Amino acid sequence: MLHKSAVLDHDALKVLPVYPLPVVYDYVLEVFYPGDIYLLETVYQLPPTNVRVTRTTGTGSSQGAAMTSSSVKKVDISSGDAAAISAQILAKQQTLLGKLKSLRGQLDSIETVLRKEKSTAPPVAAPSDKGGNSVAASEASKKFTQCLELAAGNNDTVKSLIIGESENVLSRLKYLHRKVDELEQSARAAAKSAPKVAKKTSSTRAKQEELVVSADAKYPPLSLIAAANFLAEHGSVLATSYVHSSARQVPDKLRRLLGEDVSTTDSRSGADFIVSLIWKDVGIDTTLMVEPTRQNPILAEANIARYVFRILNANYDSVENLVQFTANDKWLNLAARSLVYGNAKERQSAVRQLNAHLGQQAFLTGPDVSLVDAVVVSALFNAKEYAGLGGNVKKWAHACSQTDLFAGMKEFLV
Amino acid sequence: MKRLKSGEKFSKMADKEQVPPVDGVDGAKLSKGALKKAEKAAKKAEIIAEKKAQVGDTAPADPADGEDVSQGHYGEQPLIQSKEKVDRNLIKVKELSKENGKLVDQLVWIRGRLFTSRAKGKQCFFVIRQQQYTVQALLAVSGSVSKQMVKFAAAISKESIVDVQGYVRAVEAKIEGCSQQDVELHVEQLFVVSASEPRLPLLLEDASRADSGVNQDTRLDNRILDLRTTTNQAIFRLEAGVCKLFRDSLDKQGFVEIHTPKIISAASEGGANVFTVSYFKNSAYLAQSPQFYKQMAIASDFNKVYTIGSVFRAEDSNTHRHLTEFIGLDLEMAFNYHYHEVTDQIGQLFVEIFKGLRDHYADEIATVNKQYPAEPFKFLEPALRLEYREGVRMLHEAGIEMGDEEDLSTPNEKLLGKLVRAKYDTDFFILDKYPLAVRPFYTMPDPNNAKYSNSYDMFMRGEEILSGAQRIHDSALLVERSKHHGINLSTIQSYIDAFKYGCYPHGGGGIGLERVVMLYLGLDNIRKTSMFPRDPKRITP
Fold first, then answer.
1. CB contact under 8 A, A269 and B377
2. Integer Cα distance of B116 and B206 in angstroms
3. Region Disordered: start and end of each range (chain B) (predicted)?
4. For the whole model, what pTM was predicted?
5. Measured by CB atoms within 10 angstroms of the end CB, which terminus of chain A is less buried, N or C?
6. What is the pLDDT of residues A167-201, one digit of tens each?
């Protein structure tokens, strides 16, 4: 009597070795997915595998034979709601990748346990519990050994069969491992390519954001370049500069401040973010206008940066993000109040504050450069302090100019 | 000094004095006494008529005025019939200024119109006007100026053309009512070159005032007088400037000016709004637009063309912005791969026109703003280009309900203009990618989206000034589209044939000169910018 090999009693993973092998499939792997992961298959082309993946519903009836997949929800991408669907897809990808990671962890533990047990007789397919804890696994395997011994007595044939069986299982697990890896990779690749597909017809974001900034040629808003680069990480950006009819003497260099170098697309309807800079004689008040029927104009580059943070992260002001938000605020306030709008004494003290802070930290709000650094650099430039910097501030400014976020700003910082 | 004959010129006046008929009303012969009376009355009438006719004459001389020391220095000149060449330098009023050191305290001759005059006993102030410029002149009784001369000056009717000789004197207090505010002319000699009728149907002072009660119809009926105001002088010089800038800008880009026929055989595009003219034994139509001929010029390898000519639209719309005949500035160009090359070219053209007006016609704009105040015209460089869908979305957000493929109604256009102005601070913008259903049959559909077309409109102060598109340059597609619009192919056969022999992809657009000037200056009626406007109710002057 061949004891049917272990049905690994795991609510996420069941390996059912099928003897004899059906014609097409090597394994039937029953995997638990949350119900709405169905979207995944209709969007991406999975590489053809020999793994027939069946899905169970949320409640997961995992008994018995492999179930045929329930009808896969075909989502009509051409319906106007591509943006919402894409957002959903992105979210689901994240969960899927997480699950795949944990899956692999479990497989790893199974494998290690199997190998361990293989070397020491009697070998056993080690069940792993949720955490993939090898200690617990070995305990369970001990139990199994005991069961086996009871069943098989000291029958060597049985033992050898069991050994062979477990080797089989091991090799299958290896195969599975490989397949999961491939799945993970293809999912990642698909994640990278999917947004591009959606962008061709319309933007992935629900609403296109357009920022219209009016600035004076005497106080160029250099942080806008960094803002455009920052936005480009979250969607496609169209950036243009205009000169207003009332503005006189805008140097040719500034006319190109925001242009093709910063844009990632050249179509208004295909862009997620449109940044339009209008050179006008507004003096020191750099103004942002978004929706004139509902909003007032927003003054100062620091506030434009705050606006950008908020449109990219709806939770920017929330309690979870409090630390980041307050850190940003400190330096944005410094930029606006002390540097741009402040008098000479305030500017000096601001520079001293920066110097002190940057002695301890590479960039203003953490180890990475951020839009806040760009705003402060621009404020220093407009306050005519940029040229005469020294010490930590100088080093920091130099480090900033080497980053990707500051790409394109260098020629204007003279 | 010649007396003017009380002839045809003043026949109106003579008619007013009713000469009683020699024969009685009932046909009976009058008695001798009555005849004599009639004679006396007739003589009296003649004398009165003569007196009235004598504009320039000082007779009957009042002996109480004393001897006339200025005899020969004033009066009415004989009609200039090119009898002799007079070597006299007439200075332009524009140049009379304190700054112009050469002229101060000099004796100069000027010729202009008598704008206003004010006599006070021994003095007479009058203003001489020359196109947009006015200067004050003073005639005071002195050793060389007699009382008779002052009387004569006061009696000259307004709008007469006069030759004045006088000393240019600088004044300390600015003369507010004149364009030349820092000088005054102290008159030595004064002659009338061409007299005007004393009773003017239109007072120019009224016509030049901001809140004048002068009816537009009165103005248009007496256009000759109305056009003399400084404001109108400025408006039409600006209009000439727009034409000049249009030509200059396009010539620089290698465009060729062409002239298209206005008498055409087939009513294009439906034929609802065309004028019919009798053409020998048949009838012909007046061209509604030079569209077809521009395209034929492209098919004839002229590549980039523009044409400036009259456009005739038989629309019975009596609005503030429609005329039946106006000047169309049309352009058409072949492009390489994308019709945005055309759109960018037209946008650049407009920006250059606006910049030219802003920089070189600032005086004219200021003059117009004195009578018709308006906000200065704002624009962006490069021209702002939005998509139709964006415009519709902006309207939706402002609370307007309209379909995505509906055409913009006039109030919606105005609102969109206001929204764009609030957001981008510009009065001029381009709206790209209109829905296909609302465009003419020769508009190229958008290959990426069947519901839209490669067409665009341009707006100034919320009103449409240009409609343009990429045209279909393929006969087969043209036939298909015209069938779709239900157009009888036989009427447009020659048009379709134009593309049979290969044609470059091309696009263009046309603007109305009067409308552009009206919107640039912020005027309220297009008749103000058309010299002799034509509308359903007016075909004269």
1. no
2. 12
3. 1-30, 52-78
4. 0.70
5. N
6. 677 777 777 777 777 777 776 666 555 443 333 33
